[in-house]
Amino acid sequence: MYDFNYQRASSIEDAASKHAAADDARYLAGGMTMVPVLKQRLDQPSDVVDLGGLGDLTGISEDGGAIVIGAMTTHHDVATSDLVKSKIPALADLAGTIGDPMVRNRGTIGGSLANNDPAASYPAAVLGLGATIRTNKRSIEADDFFTGMFDTALEEGELITAVSFPVPEQAGYKHFPNPASRFPIVGAFVAKTGGGVRVGITGASPCAYRQSSFEDALSGGLDPESLKGIEVSSDGMNSDIHASAEYRAHLVNVMARRAIGG
Predict the structure, then answer these.
(1) What range does the domain containing 189 cover?
(2) pTM of the model
(3) Is the Cβ–Cβ distance between 8 and 50 less than 8 Å?
(4) 157, exposed or middle or buried, with CB in 10 Å at 0-12, 13-18, 19+?
(5) N or C: which end of the chain has fewer CB within 10 A?
(6) Is residue 197 included in any domain, yes or no?
(7) Coil, strand or helix: which one is 147?
């Protein structure tokens, strides 16, 4: 691990100020990605700004037909929230499958989204539900947030403060886990919302995306039979020792059907 200046933020404004004043700062949320990266010397920030003391970034509430989750809320708290389980049970189910108990008790929804790992679970829900990412500067719609592998629409120093998930009429999530890391090799979040059906896919490609062919097929209702026979191209999909691009393409259809009970 390289040397860096450790700073603990006392407020959202203080965090942004400390980040702006540093030469090359990073925000620290749960640390599930950053700490291993620092230990392996894959990054060399001048400063690390710890968000752990910002209580106003935690919590889950209902606001105008949406569930709003603070950026520093842990996966465990999302998974066990009575409010989330009653309003968007598929989101609680998703959070409960992330990593292991240690990861779920330390990792945060904001940190996961800001990192945008290709195999992270939350991006599928954000896209599937048409969520809005709130920051200290603006609100970003789901379809505009994920821009590439480990890349998002966040600007330098911009800080996620909360995520607003519209309550769907119906939703489901399923993923095929890597047996070691529990990351989804492929995960699918399918939701029927006021604006139509949305299908968010993670793990299959360098960046989470919406499967438009499935959305069209499910426009008449969430019937898994509607997806049978729809082929998914493997072009550009991830391929590694765990699964080939072709196998991931096959799993996209399988996980989407399972997400809606097929």
Answers:
(1) 170-259
(2) 0.96
(3) yes
(4) middle
(5) N
(6) yes
(7) strand
